[in-house]
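pls ignore typos typing on phone
zinc ion + seq
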Amino acid sequence: MTDSNSSNRLASGYQKLMEFLHEKPQIDHALERLSEWEELTREEVDKIGDYLKRDLRDAAHFINDNGKELKDWLKFDLDLVEGAIGDTFSTMVDETRLTLDKIEHEASRVGEWHTGEIVGIGTFECKSCGELLHFHKPGHMPPCPKCRGTKYRRITTQDSE
Ligand SMILES: [Zn+2]
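k done
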């Protein structure tokens, strides 16, 4: 179990990372700046980087595979995303789309998200009861508000067609 202080730090770290990326859309550079941010350990910075890359790859694969848009992946309009995060994320996804390979693709398909993990933006469904959670800004995955379940899958407009 992740303690809640650490979860909060990771979630603010993810938001901070998006601010750095807004200024300069280059992940390694942004992570370097994040590691100078006093509130985080190096391990936490690495973790946040992994969470971001996971989100970016998932979105990039979705768009490449289905010929759809970011709003379909989010399952809500990009305008609902707080601040400049939507634009920044969109830029990063475009870059990620150019560098995807097939092996990675297979690996990302088995995606499951768990309570306590940090997610950027998007819509998730509880695997036990089907409850939907919408993230309009980065945050940590809570236990399901309905059934206290801890496993989720990301859903897109593709899932409701
Ligand atoms: Zn549930």
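Helices lie at 4-23, 27-35, 42-66, 70-74, 85-97, 102-109. Residues 126, 128-129, 131, 144, 146-147, 149 surround zinc ion (CB under 6 Å). more later
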